[in-house]
Each structure stands twice: as C-alpha cells, then as structure tokens.
Amino acid sequence: MTETWQQAGFGIYVHWPFCAAKCPYCDFNSHVLARVDHARFRAAYLAELRHWAERTPGRVVSSVFFGGGTPSLMDPDVTGAILEEIRSLWTVANDLEVTLEANPTSSEAGRFAAFVEAGVNRFSVGLQALDDDSLRRLGRLHSAAEGRRAYDMARAACERVSFDLIYARQDQTVAQWQDELEGALSMGPDHLSLYQLTIEEGTAFWDRARRGGLRGLPDEDRAVALWDVTQELSAAAGLPRYEVSNHARPGQESRHNLIYWRGGDWLGIGPGAHGRVGQGPARLASANHRAPGAWLDAAERSGTGSQSEEVLPRAEIVDEYVMMGLRRIEGISRARLTALGGTVDETSVARLVDAGMVAVVGDRIRATDAGTLLLNTVIAELGVS
After folding, report:
1. Four-residue CA torsion sign, 329, 323, 172, 218
2. At 335, is the secondary structure helix, strand, or coil?
3. Cβ(32)–Cβ(307) under 8 Å?
4. DSSP assignment of 33-98, as one string?
5. pTM above 0.90, yes or no
6. What is the pLDDT of residues 298-308, one digit of tens each?
7. What is the C-alpha separation between 98 and 83, in angstroms, rounded?
8. ω into residue 278 within 30 of 0, thus cis?
9. pLDDT tens profile 98-124
10. CA atoms of 185 and 172, how far apart (whole Å)
C-alpha cells in the first residue's frame, strides 16, 4: 500500500481542538478552554510531525489542512512553525495547498493576513447562515454582517477562499433557502460547502430532539426539494457539485479533501485526529487521543499522541474506497478497485444502471443525482467484495 499516496496524494491534517463556544449541532472533537498554552502545543505538534516523518520517508506533501475546533484561534506563529517543520521533514509540492478553517468573529477576521504570512494559501470560512435569526438558532457567535465582512477580508488576504452554509434548518422553506443561496452565490465564491443539517448523536441538538424540542426540521419531500434547488442554482452559477456537499469552479476543488475521497494517504496530527497511511504492503489506520490534555501528555512523553494503530483488513480498505469514492461526481475506478483487491458484481451494476442510480463511463462507476440521494442503499446493492 505504500504506492497509495502516489495514486491519490499525501496530505497532513492538523487538528486544533479549541473553540470559543460549542455549537449545538457539532459532533467534532472540540473543546472550550479559558486558556491554551500555545507553546506547549506547538512543541507537541512538531514532535508528532517528526514521529511520522520517520515512518513516511520519500513522500511528497500535496496539502496541509488545519481543521478543528477553530484553527483561526491558533497563534499564527504556531501555524508558521508547523508549516516550516513540514517543509523541513518532507518534500512539498510546488503548488502545496494549505487550508485553514476560520470562524468569522470580528476578533479573528483581522488575523487573516498573519496566517497568510505564516504560509496559509486557502481559507475555509464557517459562515453557516446569512441571517441573524438562523445564526442564533445554530448557536453561532457572529452576525450575518460579521460573516460577510470576514469573507471579504479573507478574499482580500488570500486568493482561494471557501465558505460553508448549513441548510435544511428548522422551519426553513425552499423559497427561503433559494433566496439565501442566491445571495451566497452573488458573493462570487470559487468554492462552497453546502451541508444539510443532520442531527448527530452526542450533540446538544440530539438531546433537544430526543426531548421533542427541535421542531420544524424538514420531512423527506422538503429535504429533496432543498437538495434539488441547491444543485440547480450552484450549477447555473458555475459551481457544480463535485462531491455530495461540495461545489466548485473547475480547478478550485479542495485538493486536501480529494485525498480522502480518492483513497490517498494522510497523517492525522493533534488531538482526536485520524490518519490513513500505506506502510509496506499494509494500510494503517491511526487514531489519536481525543482529550487535548491526554494527547498533549502522550506527545510530550513519546513523540506521538496516538491512542491506537490498526492494520486495515482488505475488505475495509475496499469498503472505504467505495464509500468515499461514490461521494464524488467522478465516482470510483474499476482498475483502482481491482488493485486494492476488490470487485463489483456486474449484475448488480447493470441493475442499478437500469434504475437510474449509477452511470458507467469507461472505467468509472459513478452515482447519479438520484443515486446520491440514496447513496447508502446504492453502496449496499453494488455488490462490492
């Protein structure tokens, strides 16, 4: 599996776990802490990078992604030190993509230039909604005006800027989402992440829903109508879907996320980060301690905050490739699937083609728009083994 990174890229994910507040819909590994020792975390991140560099010699880093949490709360000097260390440990691509997720509160927006100076060349801004009432219900700390201002400041500092919106919110009509999305598209983005609100176990929204206090969520028909509007407006604006929830102008796709969806290799650095790395004939899945303190102690003690490492069985490698690959508009490659040790049942493929759920183009099998809405069913019926 050591050639996996050559097939689909090699990236480094750096998790900054701290937020100013915990959003009620968020199930990511994020924590609210009054004070963070940036110097200690900086040293621990560098130690974990060195640990993995010894195990991944000769690779070329094509992307670095600072996720969270809220990485825009990170000291830009820490960001710069991490990027400097990466450049010293590996060869990096000439067009290295360095993304940092940012929340658009006023106190953070003015730091965009400092992050660019540190080496960031792409921002992903968490706007989430463009009206104040929706932002309040989503537990966001910024206003719609602050969000737009932060986006403008990010664009002034950096050429590549994406932003996120959440739709299928409480009481949101199709007409309201159409107006909101048209407003978002009028801002001239090159990349948009448009997520349907999902109620994840372990979140405040999950608890509220169990108590019957989360009313107004869309039924299946309205959810499909919201999806259809999303696809139509985005495509008409020149940002077609290239993955279930991601839209971009050609050439502006997130290179880092494509590594995940294409089955490449990535390191997971920081609290709660996960990685997938080819090691000889095997593919290794790593998972770090989720609690920031536990990860920090382990990284300081042994050079890594890893909690577990597992050699993935062939069936799981194949399943991951299919599940992630069919999220993309380009689908999966039969040749790549074969190289990973998998096959598809051709009778099942033909049946799904007849049903309009998948399309076959040359070597590739891709989910249609109809199939994407029923992706779990399509994957189950594809007959991958």
Report:
1. positive
2. helix
3. no
4. -S---HHHHHHHHHHHHHHHHTTSTT-EEEEEEEEES-GGGS-HHHHHHHHHHHHHHSEEEEEEEE
5. yes
6. 999 999 999 99
7. 9
8. no
9. 999 998 875 566 789 999 999 999 999
10. 18
